[in-house]
Amino acid sequence: MTAYLDNAATTKVCEPAAEAVLRAMTQNYGNPSSLHKPGQEAKALLQESRETVAKALGCSPEEIFFTSSGTEGDNWAVLSGAEAGRRRGKHVITTAMEHPAVLRAAEELKRRGFDVTFLRPDKNGYISARTLEDALRRDTILVSVMLVNNEIGTVLPIREMADAIARMESPALFHVDAVQGFLKIPFTPKALGANLLTISGHKIRGPKGIGALYMQKDLRLSPLLFGGGQESGFRPGTEPLPGIAGFAAACACGSAQMEQSIAHMSALRDKTLELLRERGSLARQIGAGTAPHILCLTLPGYPSQPLVRFLSDLGVYISAGSACHKGKPSETLAAMGLPKPERDGAFRVSFSPDSTGEEVELFVDALLRAERELLPSLT
Description:
Elements: E1 3-4, H1 15-26, H2 37-57, E2 64-67, H3 70-84, E3 91-95, H4 100-111, E4 115-119, H5 129-135, E5 140-146, H6 158-167, E6 173-177, H7 189-192, E7 196-200, E8 211-215, H8 241-256, H9 258-278, E9 284-285, E10 294-298, H10 304-313, E11 316-317, H11 331-335, H12 340-344, E12 346-350, H13 357-373, H14 375-378
Parallel strand pairs: 1-11, 3-4, 3-5, 5-6, 6-7
Antiparallel strand pairs: 2-8, 7-8, 9-10, 10-12
């Protein structure tokens, strides 16, 4: 038996999504822009899929624009969102614990002459709405904050932040990276107060290479790409219909099971912590993250990379941090001000609706074995 507990990096595709991908590849293979029957059938599937994703997100289909990934959606929202407000000001606010897709885009804005403020979390990885409110200025034109941190599972107070922006009568657009929160935290873009919001397929048991940007109906950002006018002219390129159909199927499956899935993942997360305490593990939790599917732990003083390899050899698959960092130091943990031994020893366990109690047991047993056999060799 193996234990795949790296679901914040990517998830196994659910059967309905895999079947939808295959059907789109083998039956609905026409180009949605073509006027013949196969093209019009593909166009109908494209519209049906857009409606399904919109229903799961709680918005209108006209507000959904398909992208290649969460990264593309984040880049589009941050870069084009800032450019849209350039005449009113050049101040942008984000946080120091964002996904690299936002952090690198914010750094690009700095190179273009924008003034970017990076809000820092407290020692628990939390950023309050008051912290955002204190940073707002008259020339603030864009705020970009994630809903759920991908490394430690912090759920940030997005609605309160939106209220702070409104209270200060700021003209700033509000972008929310909801890639790790979609179908794991109940929300709609309107309820959050978001003008722009990013989601991704492969985090919810859909295929890789597909995501979406929610763009509020009365808002129209300039595109990042130029071409044939697909996606109402805002995201050109022949639509990747197999990915879109699979994404829609995963959305339908996930939204129908969301309440049970959240309870299931939360129980597994709690069980993991309980077993680690009961069996005397040296590992301890980092931060106060409350997302149901993410648990960040650390073995202070012991580098996490050898641990990940050791557990992998035992058939237990976790992450040394966000897969997007690829071995680089965690910007989130550094922003929290954690000592270097805690940062170096950090690793992430993450669950999906498919995760099981048996996988948790296997992980805990493997971790305790690593503490006995591996850690002494690392001192």
